[in-house]
Amino acid sequence: MASGPGDALPKELEETYAAQLLRNTPEYGIAWDLELWRVAEQERFSRELEEQRKKVLAQWQGEWDVALQSKEKEFTNRKQELEVLALRMQSSTAALEEREAAVAVREKDTDRLEQ
């Protein structure tokens, strides 16, 4: 029989047919299953990694909050200590000014008596 131009399959059909034959092989099925497994494992790994990242960030945030509260408490305590010291200094300064005024009065009295 003579083969004519109509006997040959178009290139697209040949490629489609070859791809279909390849997909029907056990090796292709195994490769496909492995690819599906790989994608599933990658997604699982990404989820676990994201969960772990969130846990670590939450832990760091908790530690940061505790440290910040501690620093704020320490700051408040130091501020109160300084306010108490400032009041004591004002009181001491006022007492010293009163003493100086009393000494000045006595000096004037002494100077007046000496004259």
Automatic annotation (TrEMBL):
Protein name (Swiss-Prot/TrEMBL): Uncharacterized protein
Domain of life of the native organism: Eukaryota
InterPro entries: CEP120-like
GO biological process: regulation of cell cycle process
Cellular component, GO, one term: microtubule organizing center
